[in-house]
Amino acid sequence: xxxxxxxxxxxxxxxxxxxxxxxxxxxxxxxxxxxxxxxxxxxxxxxxxxxxxxxxxxxxxxxxxxxxxxxxxxxxxxxxxxxxxxxxxxxxxxxxxxxxxxxxxxxxxxxxxxxxxxxxxxxxxxxxxxxxxxxxxxxxxxxxxxxxxxxxxxxxxxxxxxxxxxxxxxxxxxxxxxxxxxxxxxxxxxxxxxxxxxxxxxxxxxxxxxxxxxxxxxxxxxxxxxxxxxxxxxxxxxxxxxxxxxxxxxxxxxxxxxxxxxxxxxxxxxxxxxxxxxxxxxxxxxxxxxxxxxxxxxxxxxxxxxxxxxxxxxxxxxxxxxxxxxxxxxxxxxxxxxxxxxxxxxxxxxxxxxxxxxxxxxxxxxxxxxxxxxxxxxxxxxxxxxxxxxxxxxxxxxxxxxxxxxxxxxxxxxxxxxxxxxxxxxxxxxxxxxxxxxxxxxxxxxxxxxxxxxxxxxxxxxxxxxxxxxxxxxxxxxxxxxxxxxxxxxxxxxxxxxxxxxxxxxxxxxxxxxxxxxxxxxxxxxxxxxxxxxxxxxxxxxxxxxxxxxxxxxxxxxxxxxxxxxxxxxxxxxxxxxxxxxxxxxxxxxxxxxxxxxxxxxxxxxxxxxxxxxxxxxxxxxxxxxxxxxxxxxxxxxxxxxxxxxxxxxxxxxxxxxxxxxxxxxxxxxxxxxxxxxxxxxxxxxxxxxxxxxxxxxxxxxxxxxxxxxxxxxxxxxxxxxxxxxxxxxxxxxxxxxxxxxxxxxxxxxxxxxxxxxxxxxxxxxxxxxxxxxxxxxxxxxxxxxxxxxxxxxxxxxxxxxxxxxxxxxxxxxxxxxxxxxx
Length: 823
Hints:
This protein is mainly beta. Among the domains are: 24-149, Leucine-rich repeat, LRR (right-handed beta-alpha superhelix) (Alpha-Beta Horseshoe); 156-287, Leucine-rich repeat, LRR (right-handed beta-alpha superhelix). The chain contains five helices and 53 strands. The protein is globular and about 90 Å long. The protein starts with a helix and ends in a 6-residue tail after the last helix.
């Protein structure tokens, strides 16, 4: 036995490049080869990663390791920690490093070039990782020559085509990661030959077919001694013993097939993967029933994600579960209507999500004895009934709790101080908010909206000054003045107090919350002027809603400093005066896209990765359908809801809010004209100036607002014609010009005739379709506008038209009269 162990150690040292045993070797014994050094210099000419070190021995360069005796480059690791700042097609050069054993290229932009066939010449490779490198095209069959490869990671690229069957015959593979590509077709049957596979990740592709059976792996027997391979730059060893006769893939401990188009049932053979620790089959349309047979023998399972599948989970009440899960994700599975009692066997979970699972039961008392190491609990979007007990667990971390959108009721009496996020929205909780003063300063997210809470806000917000980023107390029965201590929330990015009964002025202390991006204080009883300091200090605001209050006074010009404003609602107040001309300076409403590159606060720290963990776009997409987040590149944007006067009705926007660029100052006492500068806001989607005392002509360049879908100018005193440029508003699907003093012909040949009479009634001098009132001789059709620049909405055409007509009249007049004059 001693000899056998000694042999294994020798093999491990040999593979690591150390050909001696127990002898210290000088790392500088042999310099790198000239040809290989030149190859690295050629690589450097593209990437510039070794600037200033060209004169040194390339074996001493960062990320380069050479054999200590031969000088050949055996390991190359290039990793770009930024977002694609290293760019260049360098992979074809790697074939000139024939002794490479370990290769890592991570986030090196390959500019969508395919994997070169020449890479197959690296027959000594043991570990190959080219992830996040913008590779495209199929996986070339030449890679079949990597007969000794143990680690293959081509994840997070744009690879397409089928998964080649030859990968199933690379029997030395220990880890295979092809996730986050565009691979399609079925999982090859040859994968049953990957007897020593420890990790398999095929998630986030376009794979179809059924989940493969795993019983076939047991038909091969092979004994392999201690082998070493490199995983992200770290050497790891795997000790293999002869394969047992028990069925299943004996080495597999991670299986991730999530976010594909796989269908059918989860095969019972998954329950034969005796060493399985990590199983993720979320979002692949699994059907049928998952029962005891899938779990009875999985003694080592610690991570289980079955989310977003239509199957039913049917575990018997007396099942003897032998594993202790650390992570349980079963969002949008069919677990109910009874509460899943098998969870009582799991006392070590840190993450539990059984949201939207059809549970309409009371939560049993034992459930609230939560594990000390809990990080995140989500039982939201069910119909869970009952009260919330005083959770007395002493948490080791600061967990996030989401109990939202259920039927919980009664007082909130939480005394556990250690919480990172708390969401109790959409229930029937009542009583006061005094419990908030017992929560410690680690709270980052608080949502108590849509309940029956009453009383005034506690004045202890200074305790959350370091962390709290989102505060939502909307749609309750809270009253009193908004406490000035909210101004201590220096990290606050979203403040929602809508639909309560708050009185007094908007507290000036909020000017200290300079990180605010979303402010909604609408539907309260706030009074006073619209504060000028909002424009002077809250420069990051994207959303400002003060609608349906008792605000008066004029619109402060300082609001024009809000260059990032995209959603602006001051409707249904008592504001008077002119619309400032500088409202045309809202730059974010003139630019395409959601202008918030720095928006980085997450809905749940632990759910989406959060500030202290790597961002996981896969998880972000999985949760974006339920939570108010917008996933893009390397961030999750919080986009909570807002009420928009949209196409004649009040509509609540949630996930789509980031797309809506809107101005609504309707139902006030504003007078004067619409400033022409408004037409600079070319990405504006909704504009509502209705029910004011505005007069004059509608700006003739309104056609510049080409993104406009909803326009309401009704119940004002506008006069003159409807501008011909309205014909350019091709996206317009709601129009209301009623109850004004407009006159003349409704422009023809456009979509303006598709609106019904209600869009134009109350303008006694308007004529033409769709109105019954006829006009005189028709004017030239609006389609002639295309002969001129459409940006000038046709006005230049009519100037030329009338000038031409005038010149023609003069020429014709003198042509006729000239014959009558004496010679």
